[in-house]
Amino acid sequence: MQFFSSPSETQIVTSVAWANAMTLAVGLNTGHVFVCDRYVHSYRRCFNCHTERVSVLDWHRNGQLLASAGRDEAIMIYDTRVSNALVSVYRNHSGEVCGLKWSPSGDKLASGANDNLVNVWDTAIVPIISYNQARSYVRTRHIPLYTFDQHTAATKALAWCPWSDDDSLLASGGGIYDRTVKFWNIANGELLKSVATTSQVTSILWSKNSREFVTSHGGGTNHLSLWTFPRITELVSLKEHTDMITQTALSPDGTTVASLGADERLRFWRMFEEKQGPREMPNTTRRFDFASFGSLIR
Amino acid sequence: MNQCHISGSEGSYEGGAGSYSSSPQASAGPTLLSSSRPTPPNVADRFIPSRRYMNMERINYILTTEDVWLPEGDSLENAVPLASSSDDFGAPTALDNLGPSLLQEGLAEAMFGTSWDDLHLPRSSRTPDKLEAFCGNGNSLLAPRPSRYRILSFTEAQTRSASIADCFGNSLHVLRVANHFTAPPVRPRRFKPICAGSLDAVDVVGDYYLNLMAWNSDDVLAVALGLDVFLYDTKTQVVTKVCLPIVNHTLRCF
Q1: How confident is the model at residue B185 (pLDDT cuts 50, 70, 90)?
Q2: Helix, strand, or coil here: B106?
Q3: What number of C-beta contacts closer than 8 Å exist between A and B?
Q4: Domain span holding position A101
Q5: Which of A6, A154, B142, B251 is deepest in the core (most CB within 10 A)?
Q6: Which of A173, A178, A180 is nearest to A158 (CA)?
Q7: Distance of CA B236 to the CA centre of its chain
Q8: pLDDT tens column, B50-77
Q9: Please, which pLDDT band fits residue A96 given cuts at 50, 70 and 90?
Q10: Are residues A170 and A159 in contact, defined by beta-carbon separation less than 8 angstroms?
Q11: Which ipTM score applies to this complex?
């Protein structure tokens, strides 16, 4: 078996997700999901449950449960600790699933797809399945906790509010014909607010340090927007990318946002201030030096 | 031996009928276990429900006359057992037969702190608020009430909005979420966002449906560029490549 990638027309990476500092999950267009270690040049697990490309991966907060979804419209939940890792399959979408986010407490899973639906699944029963008694038994569920059909385009951008208690607030952003960010109260399934933006919403990031959030956009404007949250006003619009911003990520100290554009640029933004008040750990407030950037990733 | 201690002015009754304390001073503090420790006055050595907030005279009156409803024209003296059995006022006058007199209303106001009509309305015609308060229902904890209605509520009353309360069971939770959009911003923002640097990401797939980047808790950014995954350590600015296997029929999935 070869462990080195070679130029191949049939294999590309379609999704990545970190479980913790060491473990990375990689999804391929062949439907395979690899769980890799950061330093060991091998993979630890390989799952071949999807029949089409794996568009999105997300880890549970315990770093052991992995959710994957993709073009075959099914959401798979794996427990990476056990041999028969596939524990649940959720089938409700009728389009390619492109957004998948566990809630901060890990009790709920939000999924958005190309069928314009946002589903919220109650996943609290996942860790209590007995693997010894039902080794080949996979629980398939078809009925989510909530189904929101107010979006009018594919919904990829999903973000749970990190400071909201009990997973009560979810933000979702619609695609190119929708262009709205909607806020949902997951406690009762109510649409709290819908905010119109100028273009396709490709991702939403909540700030950890302040009551703000960032949306990234495609569809011609290709900008990042910074919004205040309780009264939703757009503070600043950052236009540097020349093509759609496909993905954003927040640094662990909560100050820097990385945006990956289809214009083959990866940009870093000092977006938020450091957390006010007592500092938890001296390491978390370290910032890195971007002055010497200019090297190529590849 | 068990002597009831009723303080006359407030009508509060402490100690309780089920209390085994042998002296009437037991209600003043823990005298059975004569500890030198200062303890709050409400704490007993066993669970005895505190009746500090109960008006025992009023409860007795309500219990004995609760189901009595006066049809129009009926005599008050025959219908109300408390008034007919233990009164020393003599024969009813003609004024009393007409209905609640000024004297009785005044007496009810003075003794029970409520009006005559509230005491003598039948169960069905009482408002639900008063019914809850009379029955000592658990819901009476949630709404603010005058202190004379408080029979079994031992905690402070909490206010609640009626429009939010009926949309979901956990009303305080919903209230907190609904406050997100009306609360003022905490403090104005002084920090202007800047672009802090950029990198080339050659061969990145510009597909809306894919999720090609992730940042972990150790400041390592994973970016999928075409066939490969690169790890960019933002502390040391070192780029490493994740070695992925070639997917073919010999790949073992486990």
Answers
A1: low
A2: helix
A3: 295
A4: 10-155
A5: A154
A6: A173
A7: 54
A8: 666 677 777 777 777 655 544 444 444 4
A9: very high
A10: yes
A11: 0.82
Listed range (A63-67, A264-268, A273-277) with the worst mean pLDDT: A273-277
Edge to edge, what strands does the sheet with A139-141 contain? Answer: A54-59, A65-70, A74-79, A86-91, A139-141
Residue A34 forms part of a structural domain: yes
pLDDT interval class at A245 (50, 70, 90): very high
Question: Which residue bears the tokens 């490309």?
Answer: A53
Instruction: Say how many domains are in chain A.
Output: 1
Question: Which chain A residues are within 8 Å of B253, Cβ to Cβ?
Answer: 32, 46-48
Q: Return left, alpha or beta for A116; rule: phi > 0 is left, psi -120 to 50 is alpha, else beta.
A: left
Report the range of poorest mean pLDDT among A52-56, B42-46, B174-178: B174-178
Residues contacting residue A294 through CB under 8 Å, at least 6 positions apart? none
Whichever domain contains A98, its CATH number is: 2.130.10.10
pLDDT tens digits along A224-234: 999 988 788 88
Collapsing DSSP to helix, strand or coil, B163 comes out as helix
Give the span between the Cα atoms of A28 and A68, in whole angstroms.
Answer: 11
- Given A11, A240, A250, which is nearest B247 (Cβ)? A11
Which B-chain residues 128-167 have CB contacts (< 8 A) with chain A? 167
CA distance to A166, A169, B101, per residue, from B95 (Å):
64, 66, 7
Structure tokens at A242: 């020349």
CA of A297 to nearest chain B CA: how many angstroms apart? 6
For residue A130, is it within any domain? yes
- Given CB atoms, is B194 within the 8 Å cutoff of chain A? yes
A16 lies in a domain? Answer: yes
Probe site for chain B from A4, A6, A13, A227 (most B CB atoms < 10 A): A13
Q: Is residue A281 part of a domain?
A: no
SS3 A140: strand
Higher-pLDDT residue of B168, A221: A221
